[in-house]
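User: Quick one: structure for sequence A, then sequence B.

Assistant: Sequence A:
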Amino acid sequence: MLSPKESEVLNYLVKGMCNKAIAEKLCIEIDTVKAHVTSIMKKFGVTNRTEAAYFAIKNKIVII
């Protein structure tokens, strides 16, 4: 369902990290992080990053 990079971004998103911090952690551009977050939200059918994190936890896509 998610690409490997989207999964990495999602793991940090669930931890509450901002786009800048995720970009620094993964050594990618902030715009790339934003694109991954947008793609994740589209695939999950949600409208914001909080809903994406909730969806991932609820559906055991990410285990915290």
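Sequence B:
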Amino acid sequence: MPAYVITDVEITDASLYVQFIADVTGTVEAYGGKFVVRGGQIEVRLGDWKPKRLAILEFDSLQQIHAWLESPEYTALDDIRSRSANINMVIVDGA
């Protein structure tokens, strides 16, 4: 069953975030994930949520997501991620 990572990103350092995006893409792919949504125009239809930038990643399972999030390749990016953006993240099992 597919599982998803959903992030709401507020970029605080655009040039550094470009580097994070370049580096993180390979880690996602190495763990079987793919970007379903990466940026793009946002239209809020209900509620008062005001996301800045959305990314949705799809993996084959929650186990793959956890393996990716705990991987040395991804955790090596913690510093650049935290210096370039404020990120809210949820993971959800697909239906």
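Strands lie at 3-11, 34-38, 54-59, 85-93. The helical segments are 14-30, 62-69, 72-75, 78-84.

User: Thanks, that's what I needed.
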